[in-house]
């Protein structure tokens, strides 16, 4: 789930509502395009409901905006230079101190790109929800040892190792080393998808 900060939830809900209304969509229409329930969209826009990172991805994809457009400010378009971000947006933390995820950068393209910095305390694990076909991940280990379990296969990555794989398969990241684990996690998201404009779909 997202880092449960009320200010973050309010920013997220306000941005989702703003982008939805700019397209003259009802909550029901956004729910249909994001493959969510209408009640889920209502709860998110009210700012009362926590939300998974995968659900934010689905909503961003449906609205054709970047992840950062929903959790932060707007992202420059047409080749303009973005502002310098000295720190990422803190969006997730695990059960152990020192385990967190920060969104470093996100920009809209085809495919879109998101760059995250993740830190795991010893013994921490994270199992993301599979993302619909068209998204690919790349992980680069900065420090420590990562055990990646992907489709019943286990890979061990040490500092400076990297790996890429599709996001629509079940996978889990585990810090099996004795010390902290730090990695850069990048997503490329292809936004080409079936036409959802036809009624009744």
Q: Can you lay out the helices and strands and say which pair or pack?
A:
Elements: H1 6-22, H2 27-34, H3 38-46, H4 53-63, H5 67-71, E1 89-93, E2 100-107, E3 112-120, E4 125-126, E5 135-143, E6 145-150, E7 153-158, E8 162-166, E9 171-175, E10 181-189
Antiparallel strand pairs: 1-2, 2-3, 3-10, 4-9, 5-8, 5-10, 6-7, 6-9
Helix pairs in contact: 2-3, 2-4
Give a concise summary:
It is built from five helices and ten strands; from the N terminus they run αααααββββββββββ.
Keywords:
2 domains, 4-stranded antiparallel β-sheet, 6-stranded antiparallel β-sheet, 434 Repressor (Amino-terminal Domain), alpha+beta, Jelly Rolls, 201 residues
Structure, explained:
- This protein is α+β, with helices and mostly antiparallel strands.
- The protein has two domains: 6-71, lambda repressor-like DNA-binding domains (434 Repressor (Amino-terminal Domain)); 89-189, Jelly Rolls (Sandwich), CATH 2.60.120.10.
- Helices cover 25% and strands 32% of the residues.
- It has five helices and ten strands; from the N terminus they run H-H-H-H-H-E-E-E-E-E-E-E-E-E-E.
- The protein has a six-stranded antiparallel β-sheet with strand order 1-2-3-10-5-8. It has a four-stranded antiparallel β-sheet with strand order 4-9-6-7, with no helix packed on it.
- It is globular, with a radius of gyration of 17 Å.
- The relative contact order is 0.15.
CATH topology name of the largest domain, in short, is: Jelly Rolls
When the domains are counted, the total is: 2
What is the overall number of helices?
5
- The neighbouring-strand order within the major sheet is 1-2-3-10-5-8
Q: What percent strand? A: 25-35%
Radius of gyration (CA) equals 17 Å
Q: State the fourth-level CATH superfamily of the largest domain.
A: Jelly Rolls
Query: How many distinct beta strands?
Result: 10
Tell me about the largest β-sheet.
6 strands, antiparallel
CATH architecture of the largest domain: Sandwich
| Uncertain spans | 75-85, 193-201
Mean pLDDT: 81
Strand and helix order = HHHHHEEEEEEEEEE
């Amino acid at each position: 789930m997202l880092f449960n900060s009320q200010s973050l939830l309010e920013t997220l809900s306000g941005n989702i509502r703003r982008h939805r209304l700019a397209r003259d969509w009802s909550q029901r229409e956004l729910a249909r395009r994001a493959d969510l329930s209408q009640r889920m969209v209502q709860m998110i826009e009210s700012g009362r409901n926590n939300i998974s990172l995968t659900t934010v991805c689905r909503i961003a994809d449906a609205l054709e905006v970047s992840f950062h457009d929903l959790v932060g400010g707007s992202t420059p378009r047409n080749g303009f230079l973005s502002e310098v971000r000295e720190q990422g947006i803190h969006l997730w933390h695990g059960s152990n101190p020192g385990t967190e995820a920060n969104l470093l950068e996100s920009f809209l393209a085809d495919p879109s790109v998101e760059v995250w910095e993740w830190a795991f305390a010893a013994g921490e694990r994270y199992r993301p929800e599979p993302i619909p076909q068209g998204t690919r991940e790349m992980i680069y280990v900065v420090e420590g040892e990562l055990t990646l379990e992907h489709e019943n296969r286990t890979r061990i990555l040490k500092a400076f190792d990297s790996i890429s794989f599709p996001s629509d398969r079940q996978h889990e990241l585990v810090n099996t080393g004795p010390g902290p684990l730090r990695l850069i996690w990048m997503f490329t998201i292809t936004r080409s998808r079936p036409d959802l404009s036809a009624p009744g779909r």
